[in-house]
Amino acid sequence: MSRALPPLLLGLMLLAIWETACRSLQVPAYFLPPPSAVAMSLVERAPLLAGSALQTFRMALQALLAATLIGGGLALAVSMNRPAERAVRPLAVALQVTPVVAIAPLVVIWSGLDHPDRAVVALAAAVAFFPVFSGVLTGLKSADPDLERLFDLYGAPPLQRLWRLRAPSALPFALEGVRVAAGLAVIGAVVAEFVSGSGATQGLAWRLLEAGNRLRTADMLAALACLMVMGLALNAGIALLERLCRARLA
Amino acid sequence: MRYPGRSPLGPIDLVVDPGEIVALVGPSGAGKSTALRLLAGLERPTEGVATSADPRHVAFVFQAPTLMPWADALANVALPLELSGASREEARRRASAALAAVGLGDRAGARPRQLSGGMAMRVSLARALVTEPDLLLLDEPFAALDSVTRRRLIEDLHRLWAARAPRPAIVFVTHGVEEAVYLAARSVVLDGATGRAASEHDHPGPLPRPPGWRADPAFRGAVERLADALAEAMPPAGVAA
């Protein structure tokens, strides 16, 4: 608990400063509402926000799952064959450096204008793909070279080498990749929702847009707070998974 | 049995008799480890041939224990057997016996990080011996250990070697002159500049060594002779190795 105390104290202190500043300087509420107003909005709109948060969380999670399966699977396949790796890597990098905002309108068209949720999942998966792919590929090559030699010496078949040596060596790298990908999946989901621009997905990004259009700044900040908490929770969950795996592996 | 090998610098012609213990000594960079890996078939010679025993009957011990950190001692020792197609039960049973032979019968369930450096090296040795190899290759296996642990492991290696019938041939790389003279019946000194075998030395005394052998004048004399030969094989002073 003592480790959580300093950030908690800092947070409370910043909130207090914010509250006092808003009140004493009489900042207009549409410009910057005090934290108390944001808290009020959180309470009042709790059912709506919870539903939206769940929706965004579900889409981000689906995207993360897809990215993990596709990224991990592709890395596994490519690691068995060097020319294939050389062929695929530049494409993976190209996908990574292309801004998600820029491909979003295309994906929205491709997935059908009636299915913005599909576009959101696809886009979030596209952003989350690279860290998983890269992590798994790096991990598969990270095995102790002397252990690799030992497997050579005993004539290990490729699948045995993969299963007994490379996969366990890769696991910490893969989990690190998934942790980074989780954060990106949330970002991807929100960006995609923004770009698709329809209320059909009813996620947190839509709550932000909607409140922004009405200049309801406290509602915007409340949605933002939900996003932040969601990101933190996702990160903490995967960090926990990582710790459990590390304890088993080392 | 012949084990000629050619290092990148070589050639060295190394003939090891069955059951013989041979030390490869030489300055850093003389190609000792490369020669050993050629013998194991882990590397291919740039030129010429490195023929050796049937690779199935060769075992290798690296300088570090080189254990899989996610597997316990028993699974690490069972690995070579399982990779060469033995059933899980048979591999576990033989691995268990091999662990007991190196004095770690009670640590079968321990992970490598739960073992001391000496114990991890014993597990590594058990993994090498579990396949009952005809040729055991060791690449500076005791270099990272403290002197007490090192001496114990050397005694253990002699004991394990003597207990097997027929005895396996052992070739090991070291830059410890005393270690070479104590552990091996013969040392081959590799020249630092050419990588060729500069000289060969037979070491006196019975194997395994009798108690107090390190204080014996015959042992001390052999150590001095090998040390002199090694000094000659060093690259000239002032030349960076």
Q: Any low-confidence stretches of chain A, pLDDT <50, length ≥5?
A: none
* Net shape of chain B: globular
Give the termini separation of chain B.
34 Å
What is the total domain count of chain A?
1
The SSE string of chain B, one letter per element, is EHEHHHEHEHEEH
The tally of domains of chain B stands at 2
Number of helices of chain B: 7
CATH superfamily of the largest domain in chain B: P-loop containing nucleotide triphosphate hydrolases
Query: Total helix count of chain A?
Result: 10
CATH architecture level-2 label of the largest domain in chain B: 3-Layer(aba) Sandwich
CATH class of the largest domain in chain B: Alpha Beta
- Compute the number of strand runs of chain A: 0
Structural summary, described in words:
Chain A: Keywords: Cell membrane, Membrane, Transmembrane, Transmembrane helix, Transport. The complex is a heterodimer of chains A (250) and B (241). Chain A has 250 residues and is an all-alpha fold. Chain A has one domain (34-249): MetI-like fold (Orthogonal Bundle), CATH 1.10.3720. Chain A has helices at residues 5-25, 35-44, 46-79, 82-97, 100-110, 116-140, 145-153, 158-196, 204-213, 217-249. The two termini of chain A are 26 Å apart. Helix content of chain B is 37%, strand content 13%. A six-stranded mixed β-sheet of chain B has the order 2-3-4-1-5-6, with helices on both faces. In chain B, strand 3 (135-139), helix 5 and strand 4 (169-174) form a beta-alpha-beta unit. Chain B is globular and about 55 Å long. In chain B, 44% of the residues are buried. The interface between A and B is medium-sized, with 18 and 22 residues.
